[in-house]
Records
---
Amino acid sequence: MRYGLLLFAGFSAFCGTVTPAGEAFPIAVLPRAQSHPSVWEYWVVWEDSRNADSDVYAKDLATGQEVPISTAAGAQSGPTISGNWIAWSDNRNGDWDIFGYDRTTGAEVPLVVRSGPDLAPALHAHTLVWSTGRYTTDHMTGDIWAKDLITAREFPVCQAPYGQVAPAISGNIVVWQDARNSGWNTEWDIYAYEIAAGREFPVATGPNPQVEPAVSGSIIVWRDLRNELDWDIWAMDVTTGREFPICTNDADQLHPAIDGNIVVWGDQRNGNYDIYGYDLAKGVEFPIYVGAGEQYFPAVRGNLVVWMEDLNGDTNIYGAYVPEPATLSLLALGGLGLLRRRAR
């Protein structure tokens, strides 16, 4: 068993074993790369290169069963999971499309197949959102679209000038990275759209780039370079319009994710990227995993955090459980004597 910072708190049992909160456990440790995880309840999905081309795999942590979701020809990348649906970008047809997997039926289905690239899918329940832009390398192109997977209705979310990319969704709120104010520069901003009201609104349009948005309920988080020195994590409450910092440590913070009251991100304060978190209800920042190598691209659902780790050149997927509130308070007060690094 590998250990990071051990946070002695609650326990979660899977497959006859007991995993203490804060103890890192392997999810996918195989040759070649496993990357970009997404999590829903006890299911973790990721992009996997064990078969040379990237495929999509999943693991049910409640049973320990690993499932190949898509091993089609060509590349499958950037998987996302919500409820009974898994979706990913797929170039089996020579042009990036969106394919999906229905966990209730075990069937793979095409979700968005049309001319031009359709990329970076995000899901919440039965609503799918994606970008028509070529990731973030071309800020001049791309719109945000959505599809109701029950009715099959597709509709545009944003078709503003220049590019809109990297969408995320929670409930009624879609957020994305937007270049409409950049011209030929790439000083991205964050915009959002309320589906029920058909209302678009700016979230973060300050100087310097704001990128990598994520959303849960009424809280939007993103990566922000407003101080011009290093990347921080900021947030906004949609219901009040209040903007507030999550982490402004003097090192870089990147790849924020949020679920409920827990925000997680990759953090370079210790010289390499580790996984940190913040409890919005308690106002407490805490380490989730601090160890050798680089840990980034975290995802969170409830008290389960998963991430991508690069230790020896290959990337793998690991996870841990967020400690209980009492332990978070101890960490905030500097009670790190309870913690120890993992042994390799």
---
Amino acid sequence: MNFALSSTYPAFLRSRVGALAVIAGFALLAGCSDPATEQAATTETKPAKEAATASASQPCGKVTIASMNWQSAEVIAEIDKIILSKGFGCDVELVPGDTQPTLTSMVEKGEPDVAPEAWVNAMRVVLDKSVSEGRLHYAAKVLKDGGVEGLWVPAYVVEANPEIKTIEDALKRPELFPAPENKSKGGVHNCPSGWNCQISTRNAFKAWGAAKKGFELIDTGSAAGLDGSIAKAYERKEGWLGYYWAPTSILGKYKMVKLDAGVPHDSEAWKHCNAQENCENPTKSDWARADVITVVTDSFKKKGGPANAYLGKRAWDNGTVNVLLAWMLDNQASGADGAIYFLKNNPEVWKTWVTPEAAEKISAGL
């Protein structure tokens, strides 16, 4: 199966500028941190040993899991399917999903049972309300590092120029990051056309005064164009500076370094200007770190038995995901192929998520 490049990207990045409601929600909610939510997520990710023991004899039953339409979400859904079916005897069905439709359905209809990789910032208010009402529950923060956005450079540039640590440092050296069509200028590669991040990156370019420092903003046109610009720079060992995010297959294939913004995320500035199309005076602000959490329905919480304990522990770091996605890209592998590859080659990771008895069953099933 040959993946379209767009399948590697979460919906919150791929939403069109024309979808004003989605953009407004993202601008308002992305990066916001709610103490009650943090506490709820922390509580959910530490299931009590006593509860797990008490529910160990409960049958898991039928489980519906959303398989989102980007690679990291697709492969974790396939991993969950194998582990829940082989290790816990669940009858698992994968159903197609995407961030907003899936989470809205879980809120309103209580289905599917599990959203393995929910980028919750885009629906934070609605989800927090549903969790407080007991209709939904937060399980593990499936991406322990969160979803990471910002400006990146190749690792070899930093190795050769260790003084470059921040965005300001990079903008002092336009000669290290030549623009493709004008070598006398430095280039900052923008997010693909029509994506939400194109707006915020354009405003970051303005906030840091990059044009006055000898840079121009490069329109990459598409996801393939952005990825291709990184691959081309790596092949030629040239400088490259631009927007990217993790986890993705590209960061598993090419070692990149995220530049320190030098300032924290300013949610107010982001809400009122930095993420808005017509922002006249954007503020220097780091990108928000997105919370990426497994969400389960209340019915599954009650019927899932020990499977709940698994979903409360199952989390991996972006480095692990990047490497797996790169393998999938290189081998034109499906999510199911990626799941089997991961389980066979990373037992030291996934065996910490399950009991020894379940691990033995899963290994035998592979």
---
Amino acid sequence: MPSISSLLSLLPPLLASLPQVGPGPRTVWLPEQASTIAPQIDLIFDLINYLCYFFFILITVLLVWFVIKYRRSPDNHGGNAGGPTHNTVLELSWTIIPIILVVFIFGGGFRSYIDLVVAPKNAYEVEVTASQWSFNFKYPNGANSDVLVVPAGQPVRVVMRSVDVIHAFFVPDFRVKRDIVPGRTTATWFEAPFPTDDDPENLKPENGHHLFCAEYCGTDHSKMITRVHVLERPLFDVWLEKQSRWIDEIELDALWAVAGPKLFARCVQCHSLDGTDGNGPSWSARAGLGSIWERTAALTTKFADGRTLADFVGPGKKYATPEDYLQESILNPGANLVQGFGNAMPTFKGQINEKGIAALIGMMKRIDQFDAKGQPKPGTEAARLADAHRNRKQAAPMQGAAAPAVN
């Protein structure tokens, strides 16, 4: 009988002989293999699956056969007592063979686990911040995005933190899942060899790989979904450089109309534009009250402690202007809790600069010019400024690849 060590030694060549990973489903059970680790994970999954099928059929057949062979007959009310009572070879076989199979499965699973938790030295590093209910991705050059964009053919290490409750980083196509635990820093890595997009200015959601939070994290857990886009390295470098300064390319007078809706995509999980309160108050008119800016400018916003915004805004008070209050609500949302809402909003300090804050406040002041999805309504000043900005970009000479869209 071969030793356990000799069986485990078969794993590396077996894994190396797997077919080249490529887009498209490999089995009826799993999505496409879109990372270099996927074939290795799928092998273990398939091995366990087929072993279960085999033993299910074997045990079912033997069970039916034994029921028939050793059934109690009318002529023998005591049953068929002529069966064997002991068989050393059989007992050793059903003990040793499962042990070998379990050790073989453990060896393959442990090898895959080690491969998943130990990132290569040349891995590109991205910081991930998870909060209720969104992901934010920060790149080494300071760029931020709400979708994860990575270079093709290079290991990517994601370093993850949570600002509130437990979340998870789960990309089914990559066979990668890792919990994001508050108070701890966790990490995992992957390598995606196949590009999903060839136009960094137009990262289409349908092209990207799904990225889910796979731990129930509260009311809007089901909305905590984004995408992973893979670009060839030259296109990725262009996207990264543009992403770090995208807001600087927008004309100051158009910030609220162009940058506002892009940044609002990070707010929509909690704040609606249709008057319906979510985990945060709606930016539009709500419950007989005015819009977020109308409530703020009138200093009528009520807080959990019973005071109103009028107690905080004015000469010698905490805020000099209503805009100051809105800015702190973005950067330090727990400072003043609006009546009826909990402290669920994460801080955006270090993620949104002064221009971004100005764009959001400008959008709040003109919220009636945007539809329920945060896009400029046709015929409004917001639509005119957005169209003018778009036309200027298209008319400008292209330097290599185009600038990326901010999702």
---
Amino acid sequence: MSFCAAPYGGSGGVFLRRAGAPLSCARPAQALACATALALAMAWLPGGVHAADTANAPARGDAAWLQAIQDAARRQNFSGTIVYQRGEEVHASRVVQSFDGTDSRERILTLDGQQREFIRQGDEVQCLYPQLRRVVIEHGAARSFPALAEAQPADILAHYEVRRVGSERVAGKLCEVVELVPRDHLRYGYRLWVDPSSSLLFKAQTLNEQRAVLEQIAFTDVHVGEPIDAAQLRPSWSTAGWAVERQQAQATELRQQGWSITAPSGFRRLAEVVRHLVGAGESSPRSTLQAVYSDGLATVSVFIEPGAPVLEEPESQHRGPVTAFTRQVGDTRVTVVGEVPPATAQSIAESVVRAPLQR
């Protein structure tokens, strides 16, 4: 359930990810640096959200409550300021989303650091970098906070227990506070603040086994259900004359490429793709395999890089809830990046083995 201030393909992520072609990290060798751009691909559930139905949502069934949060993040107009915090690192973004009854459009503008803006319509995201005069277009990219999960609520509840904590004000509104407690040591826990009148997620924290906060994201101000002017969804800059880069990935099957991965209990495969990436100091692209797994909240990417520089010893790095573990398998480098405990990332990396080619 990664979240951060610059979701789509940047170096600061948000509560996300999608089932199409997840775009986690442009260069697996820099996996941890861009790991906060990992997003939790969300499968949106049908049906609207009504205030009378969502009050005291956990009391009317955990599955229905989770579904209401999923629906609210997709099927609502909202705008506000989001603040992301991990340790001493703090970032802010301005977000606007409109829903026309069929599809949603979204604009996210970073408020500190390097200027960046993300414009989403349907499954296409335009990432604008004004200092570079560059637009990066992605398809199937991750949705951002306040999105919650990819899986069906029943799948989440199979691996997390819902515990109602009480009520607390966020962005001036009294929210229901609920914890999602993992049923094993393979994943982290989460604490959520949900607006009972709209079911929109106002705040979220990732918790370790000692219930310490690893990272958090929250609205500091938010307006829900108000009309959104079309001008609020337009880019801040004219992109005429800017360079346009389209991120491409081809669907594949790892077995057909001669590889096998054993995912931990509860993690199901979302996508397997081939990417053609150019690493630092390289003049031509190198084919990299990527597999993405999720338990509905946590998401993990596995990068398989034949011909990458040889790694003498396994490496493990951590930033907040994100772990990056890298090991060498013959002439191939394997990197696992995800919002999971270090032991989980290592077990996934060690499960990557060569397999007989399937035709």
